[in-house]
Amino acid sequence: MKIKFVVASLFAASVLTGCASTNVSYGDAQAVESLTKDFGSTDLQMIADKMVDDMLTFPVVVQLTQNRRPVMFVDRIRNKTQEHIDTESITDTIQNKLINSGKFRFVDMTAANAMAEQLNYQKNSGLVNQSTSVKAGGHIGAEYMLNGNLSSIVKNAGGKSDVYYKFTLKLQNIQTGIVEWTSEKEIRKSAKRSTFGL
């Protein structure tokens, strides 16, 4: 009798669990996201838009890109916040916008090791027809580097929380070391913890 009861209970539990469902829907990727005060997609889009607009309209950069497309690479963005933030996603978005502007060309330093391994494989493995292998020494050197920082200040008091983000980006001439352009974007977000049941 006890065994029948246990089996019946397990069956009922599995039926109830199987009936539970999650509703999934698509949203607008460009819509304002404000679920928490943490760094989110809207912040990323605001930063990328501000940086690219500032850079492309800066007089020195306008002059640099007037008759040619300078080559640059993106150094890692240092995350100085207490959050786990994918800064590579920020730089990818900025890089995409700059490439699509038609003003710059980029070399991808994150893929440099993989390309070096492929060149070595083509040259030294003995498995690749040398008439079709890529010749070493043909890469274009970057003239400029983009790098920057993301920092934050967080304050909490009386159920309220305030976070201030500052993203700084600069364009540096690799040959001379001169910083040709720099800009920053500030974001402040506040949250108030609601009382349960209200």
From TrEMBL:
GO biological process, one term: peptidoglycan biosynthetic process
Keyword terms, alphabetized: Signal
Region forming the signal peptide: 1-20
InterPro entries: LpoB (IPR014094)
Coiled coil, from the record: none
GO molecular function, one term: enzyme regulator activity
Cited Gene3D superfamilies: ABC-type transport auxiliary lipoprotein component
Pfam families from the UniProt entry: LpoB
GO CC terms: periplasmic side of cell outer membrane
Keyword Mitochondrion belongs to the record: no
Protein's recorded name: Penicillin-binding protein activator LpoB
